[in-house]
Amino acid sequence: MKKKIIMRALLGAPIGLAISTIISIAISYALGGGSYRAIVPELAADCGSELSAVTLQALCSLLYGAAFAGASVIWEREEWSLTKMTLTHLLVCSLATFPIAYCMYWMEHSVSGVLLYFGVFLMIYAAIWLGQYSSIKRKLDAINRKMSEKNF
């Protein structure tokens, strides 16, 4: 199990970095006025330079991706209920990623900023979960139909 977590985390880390980079490019197109906005000014001020801030954000994006990918092994716990797997995965991902999002200034540092972050996080999580659940349910229904047609 530990080896599987580590292997998935190593695969997820560069995916987290890629997603972070794509998001920063999209934000730059939307709000940058022709400039690339890799990081928020508050992070550069905290780090002392833009280069240090970008480096820190890249490392944190690697960790973010690794956390989500490593946590995916939770879905393989056959002895757990879907509710237990979902809540455990949500908790692990939230606890792993919230500090990163906060330190990188991906949210406003206020109660309303934290609440907004968790609201958006939960909406995205729920949308992905529902999409995955619906897809798996359709596949299982198709398998069950084929099995009943063949009288299994």
Question: What does the model show?
Answer:
The chain is mostly helical and 152 residues long. It has two domains: 2-106, no CATH class; 108-152. Helix content is 79%, strand content 0%. It contains five helices and no strands. It has helices at residues 2-31, 41-47, 50-71, 82-103, 111-149. The model has no long low-confidence stretch (mean pLDDT 93).
Notable features of this structure?
single chain, 152 residues, mainly alpha, 5 helices
List the helices and strands and how they pair.
Elements (H helix, E strand, L loop, with lengths): L1 H30 L9 H7 L2 H22 L10 H22 L7 H39 L3
Helix pairs in contact: 1-3, 2-3, 3-4, 4-5
How many helices does DSSP assign? 5
Shape: elongated
Main beta sheet:
none
Measured by DSSP, the beta-strand proportion falls in: under 5%
Please tell me the overall pLDDT. 93
* Global Rg: 19 Å
The termini sit apart by 34 Å
Oligomerization status of the protein chains: single chain
Order of helices and strands: HHHHH
Structural class: mainly alpha
Low-pLDDT stretches are none
Strands, total number: 0
Helix content: over 70%
> What's the number of structural domains?
2
